[in-house]
Specification:
- The chain contains eleven helices and three strands; from the N terminus they run ααβααββααααααα.
- The protein is mainly alpha-helical and about 190 residues long.
- It folds into two domains: about 1-80, Winged helix-like DNA-binding domain superfamily/Winged helix DNA-binding domain (Arc Repressor Mutant, subunit A, Orthogonal Bundle); about 85-190.
- It has a three-stranded antiparallel beta sheet.
- Helix 2 packs across helix 4 and helix 9 (about 125-140) packs antiparallel against helix 10.
- The longest helix has 24 residues, at about 165-190.
- The model has no long low-confidence stretch (mean pLDDT about 90).
């Protein structure tokens, strides 16, 4: 891990930042999402990603702006992510969560659990709870009850951080209402 940190540091601040933002997004990330979340010009970002590719830290499929990148190993992603301070991580997660909400409507429809994760980690609890509920409902519609249970329980955990009041109660009730039938369905399939 120390050698990976040294490699990242040698690449310079733009490449390190691109790796950190990419690591916040996940092991795989698109150029478009990275560009929307990063605080770099297009030329700086392309150069930074080229440095990461040349250093053997990421794979690249396609060419920007349609390119996607994949960290060559989970350890590379984890190392880049570990270089962020807690406040930086929280801010990046919030920023990444807000980016798809503004620019990538298909992510909202098909993968709300990704946004739920970013909003949870970014401290935007109310938004997180809404997306955990949506992810649970999507999984329920596919009869993926175990997946739905996991999403809904994460939503319930996040809802516990909302201020006491009617909104918190309603959010918890919405989550429990969807969770109940999933739990019943999994219990019946165990018989």
């Amino acid at each position: 891990m120390t050698s990976l940190l040294a490699r990242l540091d040698r690449l310079g601040p733009a490449a390190k930042e691109a790796a950190q933002v990419g690591a916040t997004i996940g092991r795989e990330f698109s150029y478009q999402l990275l560009a929307a979340a990063a605080q770099r010009t297009d030329a700086e970002l392309k150069d930074a990603l080229s440095q990461l590719f040349d250093a053997g830290l990421v794979f690249q499929r396609g060419a920007p702006p349609q390119a996607t990148f994949l960290f060559k190993h989970t350890l590379v992603r984890d190392t880049a992510y570990s270089t962020l301070l807690r406040g930086q991580r929280q801010g990046l997660h919030a920023q990444v969560g807000m980016t798809p909400e503004d620019n990538f409507r298909d992510v909202i429809a098909t993968l709300p659990e990704i946004l739920a994760h970013h909003f949870t980690e970014g401290g935007l609890v109310d938004k997180a709870v809404g997306y955990w509920l949506r992810a649970g409902k999507n999984a329920t519609a596919r009869s993926a009850n175990l997946e739905a249970i996991a999403h809904l329980r994460r939503g319930i955990e996040a809802a516990r951080h909302l201020p006491d009041g009617a909104l918190k109660d309603q959010r918890e009730l919405d989550l429990q209402f969807v969770l109940g039938p999933c739990l019943i369905a999994t219990r019946e399939s165990d018989r």
